[in-house]
Amino acid sequence: MTTRAERVQHTASEVRYEVVTLLQANDCYDQAKLKREWSSMSVAENDTASALCNFSLESFLLHYRNLDEFLHNMARHHDSVNAKDYATTWNYERRTKNNPHANHYPQLANEDEIKRIHKRLAHISDQRSGLDKQWNVPQMREQICCVFEEFVKTVPAPVPTAFDEAVHAIAQRRANTRQPLLSSWENSTTSPRTIGTLSFPLDYLKIIK
Fold first, then answer.
1. How many whole angstroms separate alpha carbon 139 and alpha carbon 205?
2. What pLDDT, on a 0 to 100 scale, did the predictor assign at position 191?
3. Suppose 27 and one of 12, 37, 192, 196 were both cysteines; which one would form an S-S bond, judging by CB atoms 3.0 to 4.6 Å apart?
4. This prediction's pTM
């Protein structure tokens, strides 16, 4: 029978997945948004691009919320994993109305922002239509990634190497200075095109053209 410590180590790949998928969702959202704003599109094409904006935005928010809860040690189920399971000194908790003196990490989301994400993602609410629908995705991405990098620095060896892929993906995303893609797409359907840190076949790109 495996111990909890052993099970926690095995979940490092799930943590990496959350980070990498958050970055991928951000890239998809950026490109779908560009296509939606392209004035020469037909109504149908604009509707498709808008749908992809929603899909990718909601994916981003889901993984953002998962990482925020992980870093704020919010998971309470017996099989859940929190950041402090990897680094005992990482003892942050979200500050809430019921816990106003919690050790809240300054760059992580506050209670109201997380509630807004919950209402967007988790259930149908009569308050959803009144929610602020603006999301500062670049700022949210950078803040959650910065906190994740700080967390990795506190994890004792040799576990931090398990997060190398996620840390590398963050660095690659920052270093990526993309040229505008709308002017460079070709009509070929055989070669892939790189979007940020992603590589998609052209058949996918045709969906949002």
1. 26
2. 36
3. 196
4. 0.78
Residue numbers of the domain that contains 179: 4-207
Cβ-proximal residues to 38 (8 Å cutoff; 6+ apart), any chain: 49, 182
Report the domain count for the chain: 1
Q: What is the pLDDT of residues 149-179, one digit of tens each?
A: 999 999 988 777 889 999 999 999 988 745 4
